[in-house]
Write a structure and sequence with these properties.
The chain is α/β, with parallel strands linked by helices. It contains 13 helices and 16 strands. The protein has a 7-stranded mixed β-sheet with strand order 2-10-9-6-5-3-4, with helices on both faces. A hairpin with a 2-residue loop joins strand 7 and strand 8. The longest helix has 18 residues. The radius of gyration is 21 Å and the shape is globular. The relative contact order is 0.17. Bound molecules: ligand T4K. Ligand T4K binds next to helix 3 and helix 4.
Length: about 375
């Protein structure tokens, strides 16, 4: 490749529409704090996900902080180690101890069977993560939570536009948090949205997002500045208009990767259930070291040498990162699947900036790397 090919190159809708929206915003001189663009964006997200409330925030990390605070999670909260470190940090930042549970290798999501093993009297909740937009086993997770009187929320950062059993992500648990970061399927530059069907939780999160103000001079909750500004909402609205096109491009690229990598020994592309809605934002391959002539790191090196900046998400697992590797140094012993899967995954570039020809070239680089 002449230029570096990145994972997570932003998808961008109509520039004219975006600039028009920003121009109107200047005329209104309303730049943040519950502006009309924000309200429209929230309504669109609520409509698409089929939820009663959508509360836009400045990013998903702040959204997880806000939601877990509003749910009054404390003590210990169970989550997968195989996630972006933001999920764990958002809890730890509030003095909640993240307790990692191992993943199910078939889905890369938290293994419900491993959740009960780590429940203690201090456990107050479970944060499931819909890794790659493939839904957690919500039914089992929520049954376990009900048995132990725990609250459930989901980090749906990857899951916008995805469904399970025909039901859109965003509608599960007490609430779900989407990321609209630049690298996500739909982006707001930076942004996040918490969705919920719970009236009182929605009210509380709306107030907490704005320092806890209920009126000009009255504060009723401990709050933060978690607001999304109007420019970010304008970007989100504009990109939502391109949503179907972006899914089509991602799906085309995903299928081209499946085709191009089909006969390579020990290399498999993770599967998306065709009956469900998917955003296909992540093209994830697994490299089986027992079958593949090269290991994951050798393949990544070969790709980087050709300017394809493939990523090893999520390696190492959160339990191998600070502060968790210091505070919980033995976690790796009970997270064998997280250790194994995180050492085998590669995320490949896709999105609007990646053509089918480029996919063919990337596959060729991998094929060449496997040659003896
Ligand atoms: N939970 C989960 C499961 C998540 O995956 C994430 C975010 C969060 C929570 C937190 O959501 P936010 O608070 O961010 O809303 C990137 C993203 O920064 C992060 O948002 C994302 N997950 C994660 C999976 O990927 P890094 O550390 O890899 O970022 P970076 O700077 O290396 O950028 C990623 C790639 O994107 C690079 O290859 C370059 C490319 N890029 C990036 C930006 C910002 C561009 O081409 N253009 C751009 O404007 O974390």
């Amino acid at each position: 490749m002449n230029d570096k090919l990145y994972v997570g190159r932003p998808n961008i809708g109509s520039r004219e529409r975006f600039l028009q929206r920003v121009n109107d915003m200047f005329d209104r001189r309303w730049l943040s704090n519950d502006g009309p663009l924000l309200k429209e964006f929230e309504q669109r997200i609520a409509d698409i996900t089929g939820t009663k409330y959508a509360i836009a925030v400045c990013n998903a990390t702040a959204g997880i902080e806000l939601a877990s605070k509003a749910l009054e999670l404390k003590g210990e909260v169970i989550l997968p180690s195989y996630t972006f470190v933001a999920t764990a940090h958002a809890l730890q930042w509030q003095g909640i101890t993240p307790v990692f549970a191992d993943l199910d290798p078939a889905t890369h999501n938290i293994d419900p069977a491993k959740i009960e093993e780590v429940i203690t009297p201090q456990t107050t909740g479970i944060v499931g993560v819909h890794v790659w937009g493939r839904a957690c086993n919500t039914e089992t997770i929520e049954a376990i939570a009900a048995r132990h009187n725990l609250k459930v929320m989901y980090d749906a950062s990857h899951g916008f536009g995805c469904s399970i059993g025909g039901r859109m992500l965003g509608t599960f648990g007490e609430c779900e948090v989407f990321s609209f970061h630049a690298t996500k399927f739909i982006n707001c530059f930076e942004g996040g949205v918490v969705t919920t069907n719970n009236d009182s939780l929605a009210d509380k999160m709306r107030l907490m997002r704005n320092f806890g103000f209920v009126d000009y001079d009255k504060v009723v909750y401990l709050g933060i500045n978690g607001k999304m500004n109007e420019v970010c909402a304008a970007m989100g609205l504009t990109n939502l208009e391109a949503m179907d096109d972006i899914v089509a491009i991602n799906r085309r690229n995903y299928l081209a990767y499946c085709d191009g990598l089909r006969s390579m020994p020990g290399v498999s592309v993770i599967r998306y259930e065709p009956k469900e809605k998917n955003n296909y934002q992540y093209v994830v391959i697994e490299v089986d070291p027992d079958v593949c002539p090269r290991n994951r790191d050798e393949i990544v090196e070969a790709l980087h040498a050709e300017n394809v900046i493939a990523r090893k998400y999520f390696w190492p697992g959160c339990h191998r990162m600070e502060p968790y590797c210091t505070t919980q140094p033995n976690d790796w012993k009970r997270l064998p699947e997280t250790e194994r899967v995180s050492a085998q995954v590669i995320v490949l570039p896709t999105g609007q900036t990646v053509s089918e020809d480029t996919v063919t070239q990337v596959c060729k680089i991998i094929k060449n790397a496997l040659r003896p």
